[in-house]
Amino acid sequence: MVEQYHINSRPDIIVNKDDKKVAIEIETGKSNYVRNVKRALAARFDEVLCVTVNRFVEDKIVLALRENGIC
Asked: What tens digit of pLDDT does each residue of 17-64 get?
């Protein structure tokens, strides 16, 4: 089951399957992506995925998450 939310403070997409809850964040690099991932982890999602618009944004987010001890 897929649920979409367009409300701040919730993941962009939530996927529920076989008792597993996954948060998916669509990231452009302009939001507070570290806060978004931390919030999803605090909400006890089993997995948090960041989908980025390009490789530059992906590298930027990975670096920030590593600096914060998240990945």
From this structure: 899 999 999 999 998 999 999 999 999 999 999 999 999 999 999 999
Query: What's the confidence (pLDDT) of residue 3?
Result: 55
Q: Return the number of other C-beta atoms located less than 10 Å from residue 12's C-beta.
A: 17
Comparing C-alpha atoms, which of 1, 71, 33, 65 is closest to residue 11?
33
Q: Is 64 helix (H, G, I), strand (E, B) or coil?
A: helix
Give the model's confidence band at 71: pLDDT under 50 very low, under 70 low, under 90 confident, else very high: confident
* Rounded-to-integer distance, Cα 51 and Cα 25, Å: 6
Q: Which amino acid is at 37?
A: V
Residue 3: Cβ within 10 Å count: 10
Spatial neighbors of 58 by CB under 8 A, at least 6 apart, are: 50, 52
